[in-house]
Amino acid sequence: MVEMGWTPTLAALGGVLVLLVVAERRARRPFDPSAPGLVPWRGVILLCGVLAVVLLAHVVSLATGTPLASRWMGRY
Asked: pTM score, two decimals?
């Protein structure tokens, strides 16, 4: 099993950010009715945004040395 240390985390975050920029550029292109829209670029942008937030939270947990936990985990 691969441990998600600094190198894989930052590589994944960089890849997600590159994909986010590419998807944003593709989503802003003018509409062409003759070309079929095969990729839902707005959905790709949303997915990349969620993944970027999760990876940033993982970077924070790596930097501080303590894992991030939910505030509600111990209540129920």
From this structure: 0.81
